[in-house]
Design a protein that fits this description.
- This protein is an all-alpha fold.
- The protein has helices at 3-7, 9-29, 36-43, 47-53, 57-82, 94-105, 107-115, 120-141, 152-172, 179-191, 194-198.
- The chain has two domains: 1-54, Arc Repressor Mutant, subunit A, CATH 1.10.10.60; 66-198.
- Keywords: DNA-binding, Repressor.
Length: 206
């Protein structure tokens, strides 16, 4: 996507219409049955407009999900840096809040894509973001691998899977709690619960 497209509201609006149409059709009939013709019909746009921006439905899906994931990563990274990576069970870290806030912004899209069994690659993308986020947090809490009771990568995989499970539950239940509440609970169960079993020595700030 070019810089011109990023700032052109008409292009942004058109792509959003096509993305919304795609997600709606995926929910109705599954991704494999979706056609470009069906997408443009639901979006009330012509095929020429579609091909001006995308090569096929796979390209539309890839660009749409990449943009969404990139936005999530940027929001979490910015807030993590701003908070200097501090963790306090009494007040949720801003990066945790942004995790749920960003997903909540696109809750319908996340819900559909995470429920679509034929698209494990989207789940993999989100898991990769969660893994990176968790790895950064663990490094802040305990940078020395020798002071971990289990391999770091194993712990990261465990927490990433747990986080993903909580996110899916939250989405399937129509986001019954606020992003801040979810962040607080996730930090509490992570730091006061499982993390204590993994990290032998914790920083005094905790």
């Amino acid at each position: 996507m070019s810089k011109k497209e990023k700032v052109d509201p008409r292009v942004v609006r058109t792509k959003r219409m096509l993305t919304d149409a795609l997600i709606s059709l995926i929910e109705e009939q599954g991704f494999e049955k979706v056609t470009v013709q069906a997408i443009t019909k639901k979006a009330m746009l012509n095929r020429a407009t579609f091909y001006l921006h995308f090569t096929d439905k796979y390209d539309l899906l890839e660009q749409s999900t990449d943009d969404m994931i990139d936005e999530l990563k940027e929001a979490m990274k910015t807030s993590f840096v701003a908070s200097k990576g501090t963790y306090d069970t009494e007040s949720p870290n801003e990066s945790f809040i942004q995790l749920f806030a960003q997903i909540g912004t696109y809750d319908y899209i996340y819900r559909v894509l995470l429920s679509e069994s034929t698209m494990p690659h989207f789940r993999d993308k989100l898991t990769a973001v969660l893994s990176e986020f968790i790895a950064d947090g663990m490094t802040v809490m305990q940078p020395d691998d020798d002071l971990l009771t289990i391999p770091r990568e194993m712990a990261i995989r465990f927490y990433a899977s747990a986080f993903l499970g909580v996110i899916i539950w939250w989405l399937k239940n129509d986001c019954p709690y606020t992003a801040k509440y979810m962040a607080a609970q996730l930090m509490k169960v992570t730091i006061q619960g499982p993390y204590k079993q993994v990290v032998i020595e914790q920083k005094s700030s905790l």
